[in-house]
Amino acid sequence: MKYTGSGTSYIIRLERGEEMISTLSDFLATEGGARSAIFQGIGALERVKIGYYDLAKKEYYFRKEQGVFEVASMQGNVSVVDGKPFIHAHAVLSRCDESCACIGAHIKEAYVAVTLEVFLTMLEREIGRVHDDVTGLKLLDL
């Protein structure tokens, strides 16, 4: 990973083979001091684990996707859970083949296939998460 910026705005370039969620979490824990942020990104990912939340069952379901994907759109936020950065990321991914078929979902895990360029803006206030009984999720504590 390489980055430039300071204070509130960063441009981060993840390198081939780096795991997206853990690399961003490590960056935030050291550089950002586990502060809250918003981000967007473009690039290419592989070995992706994506999923969705089933509200009726109050469970996440994830599946692995093979192959390389262009990141057509990725956005997310960072909050603080148990004193550590919590990355919440969603993406639309396009298959790197003739179909350019798209899938989109919550990203649990993904490895950089070529590069991943992340544009991250720190927020002034640290935002945590609190358990919500109705949804079963830890929602932003605003």
Furnish the topology, listing elements before pairings.
Elements: E1 2-6, E2 9-15, H1 20-32, E3 37-54, E4 59-81, E5 84-95, E6 102-122, E7 129-131, E8 138-140
Q: What is the succession of H and E elements?
A: EEHEEEEEE
Low-confidence runs of at least 5 consecutive residues: none
Determine and state the CATH class: Alpha Beta
Compute the CA-based radius of gyration: 15 Å
Structure summary, number of beta strands: 8
Put simply, the count of helices is: 1
Instruction: Count structural domains.
Output: 1
Helical residue percent band: under 10%
Mean pLDDT: 95
Q: What can you tell me about this protein's structure?
A:
The chain is mainly β and about 140 residues long. The protein has a single domain (about 1-140), classed as 60s Ribosomal Protein L30, Chain: A. About 10% of the residues lie in helices and about 65% in strands. It is built from 1 helix and 8 strands; from the N terminus they run ββαββββββ. It has one helix at about 20-30; strands at about 1-5, 10-15, 35-55, 60-80, 85-95, 100-120, 130, 140. The strands form 2 sheets. Strands 1, 2, 3, 4, 5 and 6 form a 6-stranded antiparallel β-sheet that branches.
State the main characteristics.
1 helix, two-stranded antiparallel ribbon, 60s Ribosomal Protein L30, Chain: A, 9% helix, flat, mainly beta
In summary, what is this structure?
By secondary structure, this protein is mainly β. Helices cover 9% and strands 65% of the residues. The strands form 2 sheets. Strands 1, 2, 3, 4, 5 and 6 form a 6-stranded antiparallel beta sheet that branches. Strands 7-8 form a two-stranded antiparallel sheet.
